[in-house]
Write a structure and sequence with these properties.
AB_hydrolase_1, globular, AB_hydrolase, eight-stranded mixed sheet, alpha/beta, Rossmann fold, hydrolase, hydrolase activity
């Protein structure tokens, strides 16, 4: 397996396919780099170098007790970019992963970044607060943590139909649902819990002003997990030189349900 070790001693797994301009993918919760296989293959077959890593605590990466705040996660990305000496990289972040690629730019600048894509991302803020009155209530995330502690496997199995919009009529195979659960259960329980707190409570509003590269924001208007009006629509307004593309009827997991359109959009954006 292809791995590197971070400055705090955590081994991270990554895939590195193809040659050309690098496109670096950051996955959503509670998944791994495997969620990107279809998009990575498409880009690698069309002249790009597609790279995706397993976040610490998830997939095939090490499972440390700590380090699940966005500053550390952004530093992991910075160290991977430095390890591979990537330049003019296209950063792509989905859901929780949209936060760490955004925080990467805020902490490390855009010297090595050419473009940014935020897909169903939690930016600029997920949870409802006094300053962000449009997000879900804290009680929702308290319930997620309680469900994970009580029966993680069943909780995640029940979560997938909402993630993919199956309950709203989306056609997703049993194989996809089984693979999603298998990937999610590779993660440590500690990482799975801590990241709920990170992606729900982190405020990325200050980070938005630091983004100075062309940015593509893609979001589904039937996203029942990360609501469009509370996240993607606001992010596109706050980021200079951002383009918002709304997928009509798309759920949160449009990486699967709208795979063909997403591959075409990412390829055009990367070019």
């Amino acid at each position: 397996m292809t791995r590197f070790t971070t400055s705090d001693g955590v081994g991270l797994y990554y895939k590195d396919w193809g040659t050309g301009r690098p496109v670096l993918f950051s996955h959503g919760w509670p998944l791994s780099a495997d969620m990107w296989d279809s998009q990575m293959l498409h880009l690698a077959e069309n002249g790009f170098r597609a790279i995706a890593f397993d976040r610490r605590g998830f997939g095939r990466s090490d499972q440390p007790w700590q380090g699940y705040d966005y500053d550390r996660l952004a530093d992991d990305i910075a160290e991977l970019i430095g390890h591979l000496d990537l330049r003019d990289v296209v950063l792509v972040g989905f859901s929780m992963g949209g936060g760490d690629v955004t925080r990467y730019i805020a902490r490390h600048g855009s010297e090595r970044v050419g473009k940014l894509a935020l897909l169903g991302a939690v930016t600029p803020q997920f949870m409802k607060t006094a300053g962000h009155p449009v997000g879900p209530e804290k009680s929702l995330f308290d319930g997620i943590r309680a469900g994970l502690r009580a029966d993680r496997a069943q909780f995640l199995k029940d979560f997938s139909p909402v993630f993919y919009g199956v309950h709203h009529g989306a056609a997703v195979s049993d194989g996809v649902l089984e693979q999603t659960l298998q990937i999610a259960l590779q993660a440590s329980l500690k990482a799975t819990l801590d990241c709920v707190t990170s992606f729900s409570e982190t405020d990325f509003h200050p980070d938005m002003a630091t983004i100075d590269v062309p940015t593509l924001v893609i979001h589904g208007d039937d996203d029942q997990v990360v609501p469009l009006d509370a996240t993607g629509a606001l992010a596109a307004k706050l980021i200079a030189n951002a383009t918002l593309t709304v997928y009509d009827g798309a759920p949160h997991g449009f990486v699967v349900t709208h795979d063909a359109r997403l591959k075409a959009d990412l390829l055009a954006f990367a070019r």
